[in-house]
Specification:
The complex is a heterodimer.
Chain A: H1 4-30, H2 33-53, H3 57-75, H4 81-102, H5 107-115, H6 126-152, H7 154-159, H8 164-205, H9 209-234, H10 238-266
Helix pairs in contact in A: 1-6, 1-8, 1-9, 2-3, 2-4, 2-8, 3-4, 3-8, 5-8, 6-8, 8-9, 8-10, 9-10
Chain B: H1 2-8, H2 17-42, H3 46-65, H4 70-87, H5 96-121, H6 127-133, H7 144-170, H8 172-177, H9 182-204, H10 209-223, H11 227-252, H12 264-303
Classes of the chains: A mainly alpha, B mainly alpha.
Chain lengths: 267, 304
């Protein structure tokens, strides 16, 4: 489980969990679950396109997730944002279907792109993943205060000169960058579970933002590590465990919060 | 003229059995999706509607695993999913995206497991492709009665709940104050939604069934404010996109030298998206005309 090629996986999974925890905290705070679902899922088409052209998957993922982020942000300015998100998503997926029909892509490869592949990362990809990951965290660090302000009290943020639209665009681009590095490991669909489950659990447990973010990272790490370990042993897809553990973390978080409220009420 | 006709309809289009089945199923599915989708868009539940398609993926792949027709899996599990969403309160605006997301996460996890088991334990290949991207050209004609029955049930549910549903879509408070059966109407609507998601999953695949549910209604609601007119317009856009999509997919076999057809779902989605963008053009043209009229009136008043 800790032999050479698995070490890469552990390293990448750790980066993924940290990014998912940090970015996911804002996803939950801003209530942008749908864009956070749509961007990774749409990026899947980019990976399919990249394999059609024979270029690096990361390039395809990056291009499509950026395109999705900008498209959702731009079109969402006018018209209903949930409708725009849904339509942008299906358009990219349709392109993905067309790309796939043109390649002799094997079914297992589609599957691993959507649902994750523990051994899907090569050592050469470790460097770009780490670089983009650090850039993501740095972007969140720089944007932390205005992003927090515009997420919690948009009116105050607007009064202080923080443009809501610009913040939304910047945030979507950060989600796109996070997507690019995480999809090859946990898959287009499960990246979303990781960005929602652990941060939602953390938010249920504490109201303090910095602590919640830290807690989200810890829970995400535990989820990913456990998922990989069990997937390695059982041969079942890692995505299944990420999805179930993520939701379980949230259920436990809610139960813990309810218990604490109950305890406070009785004393 | 005859030359043009054969250019547009490549040889064998009208006599091909699979095309007949595809057109029949596509039409029914487009109508059900459009009717249900008008309410989904008006209630702002696009995310829930989309989440159900991922729940349907788990259902379809699970049905494959036990050797059942995927259609029953699609419909069965998305009905369960709709029930869960309704129970934990998808109608409350606050926090509902989070809850929807968590249901979605579990469903995706299950889908991952089922598809993996499909690929490793059963002899059937192509389950992933078929469930995710649809099988309108390979569906048996014998499926049509089942599709029609499910569609009739979905349309019936909407018809029964129509007035209270419309009222509660506009304002839950007014509907409750008037004593409209909001809860029952909501349940019937969720039933129709899960049926429609299951049906469109069969036609264009779980990954793309959101397109028929959201696209035509969203375009229609940009064209007209009246719910009745939006229903008709959404049906027409949906049917048009499906027919044109089937035709183009059939023709695409003859494009280029590769003799390889593009998937029908790709064309349907592309047409639906184009329809949405075009409806936006109309809206902005109308808005501009109004703005010019107002500005003109202001100027003439200033001149006077």
């Amino acid at each position: 489980m800790f032999s050479g090629f698995m070490m890469t996986t552990w390293a990448v999974a750790t980066i993924v969990a940290v990014i998912a925890g940090v970015v996911g905290f804002f996803v939950v705070l801003r209530g942008s679950a749908f864009p956070a679902h749509a961007i990774p899922k749409g990026a899947f088409a980019g990976a399919a396109g990249a394999s059609l052209l024979g270029i690096n998957t990361l390039v395809g993922l990056g291009a499509f997730s950026l395109l999705a982020a900008l498209g959702i942000g731009r079109l969402g300015r006018r018209g209903r944002s949930d409708v725009v998100t849904a339509l942008a998503l299906v358009l990219m997926l349709a392109l993905g279907a067309a790309f796939l029909s043109r390649t002799s892509q094997y079914e297992p490869e589609i599957f691993s792109l959507l649902f994750g592949e523990v051994l899907g990362v090569s050592t050469t990809e470790l460097v770009p993943v780490a670089v983009i990951g650090i850039a993501c965290i740095a972007a969140v660090a720089v944007l932390y205060r205005p992003l927090m302000l515009s997420s919690v009290v948009p009116e105050v943020a607007e009064a202080k000169g923080v443009r809501d639209y610009r913040m939304q665009m910047a945030f979507l681009v950060v989600v796109a960058a996070a997507t690019t590095v995480t999809v090859p490991v946990v898959g287009a669909l499960l990246m979303f579970s990781l960005m929602i489950g652990p941060p939602a659990a953390a938010r249920a447990l504490t109201r303090r933002p910095a602590l919640a973010m830290l807690l989200a990272v810890v829970i995400a790490l535990a989820t990913v590590w456990a998922a990989i370990a069990i997937s390695y042993r059982s041969n079942w897809p890692v995505g299944f465990f990420v999805g179930v553990f993520g939701a379980a973390a949230y259920a436990l978080g809610r139960a813990g919060a309810a218990l604490r409220r109950h305890g406070r009420a009785t004393t | 003229m005859g030359g043009l006709a054969t250019r547009v309809f490549e040889p064998g289009f009208f006599t091909s059995g699979p095309v007949h089945v595809a057109i029949a199923i596509g039409t029914v599915v487009a109508v059900v999706s459009a009717v249900t989708g008008v309410f989904t868009v008006m209630r702002g539940q696009s995310f829930a509607g989309h989440a159900l398609t991922d729940v349907a993926t788990a259902g379809g792949s699970g049905a494959f695993l036990i050797g059942m027709s995927p259609l029953f899996g699609f419909v069965g599990l998305s009905a369960v999913g709709a029930g869960v969403l309704e129970m934990i309160g998808v109608q409350r605006a606050r926090g509902r995206d989070l809850v929807t997301g968590l249901v979605l996460g579990v469903a995706i996890g299950l889908a991952a497991l089922f598809l993996y088991l499909d690929a490793t334990t059963t002899a059937t290949s192509g389950a992933t492709q078929q469930i995710l991207f649809g099988s309108i050209f390979t569906t048996q004609a014998s499926t049509i009665p089942v599709v029609v029955a499910f569609s009739a049930a979905a349309l019936g549910a909407i018809a029964i709940a129509y007035r209270p549903l419309l009222l509660s879509t506009v304002s839950t408070d007014i509907a409750a104050a008037r004593g409209a059966p909001v809860r029952a109407a909501g349940l019937l609507y969720m039933l129709a939604l899960s049926l429609s998601v299951g049906l469109s999953s069969l036609a264009i695949g779980t990954i793309l069934s959101t397109a028929l549910l959201i696209g035509p209604p969203a375009a229609a609601l940009r064209l007209t404010r009246s719910a009745g007119r939006a229903l008709v317009a959404a049906c027409l856009i949906g049917i048009g996109a499906t027919w044109l999509g089937v035709l183009l997919a059939y023709d695409s076999f003859y494009w280029g030298a590769s003799r390889q057809a593009l998937p029908v779902s790709f064309f349907i989605v592309a047409i639906v998206f184009a329809a949405y963008l075009l409806s936006g053009l109309r809206v902005s043209a109308g808005a501009r005309a109004r703005a010019v009229a107002v500005a003109g009136a202001g100027q003439s008043r200033a001149a006077a």
